[in-house]
Amino acid sequence: MQAIFILSLFGLVYTTVAMITTMLATSSMQLKLDRIESVKEMFRDIELGINQGYLGNYVDFSNLTAFPTNGSTRLDASLSATNNKRLDKFVGPYVSWSSKEMLVDPWGSDIYIIAASTKEVIYADTDRPTGSPVNSISAPITAFLLVSKGPDGRFNTADQEGPPGLATLNQVKRYTKGTVDPYEEDNIVHVFTTFSAMNEIWNHTRAVHSKIMSVAADSYKQKYELFLPVIQTEFYDKVNFYDVDLNWVGDEPLNSSGAGTGCSTPLIHAWKDPDCNITGVTLPGGDLTGHLDFPRLQADIESMGLGREEDRLIEALAPDIQLTLSNSAEGVDDVLDFKLNDSTSNDWDVVYAKRLNGAEIIGGL
Hints:
Number of helices: 8
Shape: rod-shaped
Helix content: 25-40%
Largest sheet: 7 strands, antiparallel
Number of strands: 9
Order of helices and strands: HEHHEEHEHHEEHEEEH
Strand content: 15-25%
């Protein structure tokens, strides 16, 4: 009886120890998995912190010390704590992870972080004013690579700190961990670029640019509509559109219709040509372009009531991008050019111009 009791006791002890061992092993495995997932989550948050956080306030990394526009640079604990291009320094305000968590993984190894940049064309078109260069926007694109050595604490058999020879954006962007070296299997790797963020910045700027042009065109139309009574009383009511034989000459050039001199514009449209001197028109110059209320495309953002929209535009790529407006003709040939220009200090290359043509806006008026 005593022997049976002792055997039962040993069995209970063995079972208990086995259960505890299993629980500890399961707990250890779960902890490992939790830590792996935590690192992956942090890497994803860092990507959002850069593309949506940092690049939501800045248009590139030019304000960070020695951040290259063409080449690669380390951003990890290999840099001093005072270097503002160390990842935790410039991304920290946009993520909930501590500096230590962003630089050292849960197993005590330094996280390897590298960035490589180059300038790439992100937009181009040929719809620009005659004589202007092809519209082309180049932006600094950066690829980031974050590598944790994982649970085994080794990057590879040679126990390097990270992948060597990553000098260009394409090398960083295309990096994948090896599948032959057993120590690389548990490395945690995250790669991303700022291409989408740069496109978003440009698309915002272009949208504001288009809105300003649209408002200017609408304003021009409204001014012509308000000017229609003047056209009626000062032109249509005073000008004879028939010759002595009562033939319609309104579609003939002014010089040949006998209704005036100075231009070859059809008589019906001569009121809006500053070179025309129309018989019957009593305003100075013999046309309507000298009238105080004659509508013009305005080359002044503030006079169009678009100061705030310009501020939004300037904020998008400020202070290096400026919007300029300029008139190159008057009357029937009135055009207004909208140009974006960048300063030589900017990491962006911006050549972008669009044109409003007065004659096209008002059509057959």
